Amino acid sequence: MKLWNSMVREDAEPAQIYIEKGEWTDSTRQGRIVPYKIYTPEAKSDGAMQERLPLIVWSHGLGGSREGAGFISRYVASHGYIVVHIQHEGTDSSLWEGKPGHPWDVIRATHIPRRATLQRLQDVPFALDEIAKLPQSSRMDLDVIGMSGHSFGAMTTQVMAGQYRGHGKRRYSLFEPRFKAGILYSPGHAKYPEQYTGIRLPLLAMTGTDDASPLAEFGWEQRREVFDLSGAHEQHLVIIENGDHMVYNGSRGKLGVNPKRGVHERIIRVLSLAFWDAYLKGDQAAKEWLAGDGVRAWLGDEATYTYRA
After folding, report:
1. pTM of the full structure
2. Domain locations in the chain?
């Protein structure tokens, strides 16, 4: 059997991508607006019956928007996926837009109420319901859905994957059973280690040795806890050498130039596609590549990869 990466041109985006933006209104939450951005690959032009494509939902980090991480979503979508970015009012770019000072400083000085976090989490099942009503849904396999996100979006993904909220007698789950797997770009750090044990889905956690939080006091060692303590089988972890927090978003914030940005983005794109192929398309070659020595040989000294069955 050929290794999975030998069957994929690492720099190729084989299909043209169409982008559409819009917004949904949730009448059950006082007219809450949820903006979205959809990456859809060009349909075949030969008139053949179109295969339904897996769906991936993306959630941005604190202070972010639906515009981030386009380099990941364009690449993945071009290989036969539909990717929908959702934007979370109250924890998005509205926190800093139009305000004096650097966005990171503004966000750091802003109190994020618990309600804003809960609204963000509620955006996800609402978005899934709305996605099913879109014209593009005729091309989606809504039985095969993955979720991903960066930083706060990674934490949102962790909660949808079953990570507990609360502690002790107040512990509860917001597990979203429509998701089959997830990717965490700069995973969130849980306040209580026991919260990770609620996770039920295969996850790929991506971090780097320079992945310190720009807003809190923790680094990559805490970000890997979701891998170490997850209660689910088939957990994956990649630690990129000198990978930083913002490389996943395609922007820099206050960080300086990353001389290995191209290398890191290539790793992020290819591992994302391999994981989705393995867990959303059932590609056995991709799964064996990730679970065996293939991925480690491909990464070389640029990153370490660990798989726990």
Report:
1. 0.96
2. 4-308
